[in-house]
Structure formats: structure tokens, C-alpha cells
Amino acid sequence: MRGRKIIVGVTGGIACYKAVSLVSALRQQDFKVQVVLTENAAKFVTPVTFRAVSRQPVCTAEFAAGGEPVPHIGLVEDAALFVIAPATANTIAKLANGLADNILTASFLAARCPKIIVPSMNTAMWENPLTQENLQKLQKHGVEIIEPAAGYLACGASGAGRYPDTKIILQKIQETLGFAAKLRGKKIIITGGGTREPLDPVRVLTNNSSGQMGLALQDAAEKAGADVVYIDAAALDVQGLKEKIAAAFADADALIMAAAVSDYRAVQVSRNKIKSAPKKLTIELAKTEDLLKYFAGQKKKQYLVGFALESEDLLKNAEQKLREKKLDLIAANDISALSSAEATVILLDKSGVAETLERLPKTQIAARIIERVAAAVQA
Questions:
Q1: Among 16, 59, 113, 155, which one carries the catalytic annotation?
Q2: In a domain, 252, yes or no
Q3: Domain shared by 46 and 161, yes or no
Q4: Among candidate residues 176, 203, 225, the one where a domain is terminated
């Protein structure tokens, strides 16, 4: 997805307040959202609301306050998708007959990207043959129509015409842009967070992993249609994490090890709480098992992704880990990524090809990793 632009057109029906949730959800999926309101839509929900949610200026008229024309051609030329939600019977009629009498209809007609319309209106208006003919005409020209839901309407009646659930609209958007089905039918194991090696019943040996990347990967994989097994390492020691992965590994298509696994464990775990009286305390540590290396030896079809967090010689150390652990892909980043929402990551595959993702939110990095995994497991 990575910043692709979606135009969200909002028309003047009572359901237009629900478009705020749609815009918010698209922003959370890292789309750039440009909202275009009709004059009547702006009477239901102010442009200020949509600007706050989209973090972009909102288009409401063909001419700006100073009299300068708004370039509707430029507005849509880099758009990946144009969706109108909700779309009133009036706007549908205009579009079906090629009218361009406001900024929304003019922009829609100028757009060359895929288009989706989400009708919402009174049942009688929805069932009117003229409305249905207009929708059929738009479909004939490649416009996707999301059927309204049936239920209680703002006018007090019950029937078809209700604005559909935001999740249904999001799914259609993802399918139209080719995101949703990439990992359908694929089982992906994702680990996240930092393991905890016990020292005594109270204290543990752990690390500063926030778990953000693991959760972002889970979200991206689920949006791509995968059957995700997410394992939170923060509740486990290394042995426990190994057992959880092993239970799901045999029929998995990929393992993404975003968890920060402890390198060492206590040789002897105290049965009782260690007293704080001594001025110095020596604890003997032993190396933990290398889980990625272990599962690389077990794999048959599985695509293995590891992470390398380094404070120096980033690329050199990542190449070494990729080779020694027999991984398919490694994501290398420096320690500045700890507990940060953004990171610079180098994706290095076993063929030696490196891809640098420069200062991106972890959600976008996760989406790119999932794209790489999807391409590999489908090959």
C-alpha cells in the first residue's frame, strides 16, 4: 500500500458521517486520502472533521476562497482509486449521464483509476428503476458498485439502502487494488516482542523490544488474507517460544521471526527470590538455542524471514546471519529502531539483492515485508 493515494468522495446523505470512519481506516492502512465533499455533504459533516482525520486539505468547491480554480485533473492524476461513500441517488444520476457540475463529479469523470460507488438512500429511491438503470450504466463503464445493506433507515423505514459496514468497503478497496487475496489460503507464523528468561520467581532477563513490528506484520498479513498464527514472545522464554512455533510449523508456508530472542539464559534459575543484600551479584549465563537456525534445518517448503538489529557493520552482519542461519530474507536495522514507530530497514535476500526502506513507519515496512513473502510463497 505504502502511501498510495485514494480519493474519497462524500455526498450529501445522512450517512455521510460514516465516511469519517472509512477515511480513518484507510489512513491507518497507510493510504494517502484526499477527501472531496459536495456542498450538501459539508452541511452534514464539516471539512474540518475530514481534514483532521485525513491530514490533508479537503476539496469542497471548484474555486478556492481567493477565486483560484481547483485543478480537478491534477487532483486525480496520481490516484490509485476513487471511491464515493456514500453516493446519493442525485450524484449517481449525474455521473451516469456525464454531468460535471461540482468538484466531486468533475473529478470523478476526470479520473482514470478504478472507481467504486457506495450507494446509500431511502429504499424507494434505491428500488426506483431509474436509479437501477443509472447504476447499470455505471457498471457497464467499469465502475464497481457495493450493494447497500438492508435495515433500519434514518427516515424511520426499514429496507435496502442502508450504508454498508466499513469493513465491507475496505475489503472491496483491497480487492480492487489487488491486496486482499495475495496470501489467501497461506499459513504464516509471526513472532513479536522480546522473550523473558527467568532469573528467579520475580526477575527476568529480557530486552527493550516493543513488539510493534510483530503486530504490524500480523496486521499486514491478515489484510493480505493469510491465516496468521501470532506468537507473543513477551510471555515466553526461548524454549517456550520454540515449542509454540514447532506446534504450528509443519504446515506453515512462512515463519517471520520478528521476536527479539534472548541470546543467553541463566544456568541456574533460583527457586527463591534472590536477596538484594549483596553489593555484587554474579549470575552464570549460557547461550540459548538459535531458533531460526533450528527451524531452517526443519523446513521443507517454509519461507524464513529473520531480523538483524545491529549497532555497527549493519550490512556485513546481516549478510553473515542470512548465510549462517540459511534464511530466505533478512530485515536489517540499527538499534535506533528500538521502541520507535519508524525505522530504516535493509531487506536482503539470499540472492544478495538489497532493498532499502528509508525512515518509514513500521506499518509500511511490515506491508513491504508481507509483499515480499507473498511473492515468494506464491512462486
A1: 155
A2: yes
A3: yes
A4: 176
65 φ, ψ to 5°?
A: -60, -35
Annotated binding residues = 263, 273, 307, 321, 325
What is the tally of structural domains in the chain? 2
Q: Round to whole Å and give the CA distance between 155 and 171.
A: 28
Total-model pTM? 0.61
DSSP H stretches of helix in 285-354: 291-298, 314-324
Q: What gap in Å lies between CA 350 and CA 37, rounded to an integer?
A: 49
Q: What is the 3-state secondary structure (H, E, C) of 54-66?
A: HCCCCECCCECCC
142 and 210 in a single domain? The answer is no
Instruction: Indicate the annotated binding residues for CTP.
Output: 263, 273, 307, 321, 325
Q: Which of 264, 258, 288 is nearest to 373 (CA)?
A: 258
Q: Kindly state whether residue 182 falls inside one of the protein's structural domains.
A: no
What are the Cα distances from residue 101, in Å, to 106, 109, 158, 274? 7, 11, 32, 77
Q: Give ∠ CA 167-255-214 in degrees, rounded to 5.
A: 55
Examine the fold and report which residue of 140, 155, 176 is the final residue of a domain before the chain moves on.
Answer: 176
User: What's the average model confidence in pLDDT over 86-94?
Assistant: 96
Domain residues for the domain of 50 are: 5-176
Is residue 222 domain-shared with residue 368, that is, in the same domain?
Answer: yes
Q: How far apart are CA 141 and CA 225, in angstroms?
A: 29
Shared-domain flag, residues 242 and 344: yes
Least confident of 39-43, 288-292, 334-338, 346-350: 334-338
- C-alpha distances out from residue 352 to 219, 269, 280, Å: 28, 42, 47
Question: Contact, 217 vs 190, CB < 8 A?
Answer: yes
Catalytic, 16? Answer: no
CA angle 143, 148, 150 (to 5 degrees): 165
Q: Which amino acid is at 44?
A: F
To which residue does cell 468497503 refer?
A: 169
Let me know whether 161 and 256 are in one domain. Answer: no
pLDDT band at residue 1 under the 50/70/90 scheme: very low
Q: How far apart are CA 256 and CA 260, in angstroms?
A: 12
Mean pLDDT value of segment 183-188: 91
Strand, coil or helix: 23:
helix
Joined grid coordinates for residue 134: 443509472
Inter-residue contact 231 to 246 (CB < 8 Å): no
CATH code for the domain of 372: 3.40.50.10300
Please, which residues bridge with residue 349 across strands?
329
